[in-house]
From TrEMBL:
GO terms for biological process: microtubule-based movement. Residues 143-153 have a biased composition (Basic and acidic residues). This is Kinectin 1. It comes from the Eukaryota. PANTHER family: KINECTIN. Residues 132-153 are annotated as: Disordered. GO terms for molecular function: kinesin binding.
Amino acid sequence: VSEQPNKDVVEQMEKCIQEKDEKLKTVEELLETGLIQVATKEEELNAIRTENSSLTKEVQDLKAKQNDQVSFASLVEELKKVIHEKDGKIKSVEELLEAELLKVANKEKTVQDLKQEIKALKEEIGNVQLEKAQQIESSGKSSPEELTSKPRI
């Protein structure tokens, strides 16, 4: 009879071991599932990190382009300002040139007028000399001195 209680105890212990084995198996399965989930989450995390790194680089590239565009825009503005200033200077020089051209044209006209006046005076002198020569001939005086002398004006 004393073997019976030992047998019951052994059966209980075996049953307890079997339950513990099943629990252990369940925990191992849960752990394996958890590890798979962790590995999956780690892959997702790595994919997100890679995407984040790409996006960060893209943002830096865009910022650099934006800075270049700002620099380019300010350069364009500066060039427009310089061109505007140069246009103003060119206009001033053109106005001065036109004024000088007018002065030259006026001087040329004055020179032409003087040339005509000189021509008219030469004709007048020629006429006066002719008259004088005629007077000398008609009066009978024909000294070479009188023929060559020119009247003063």
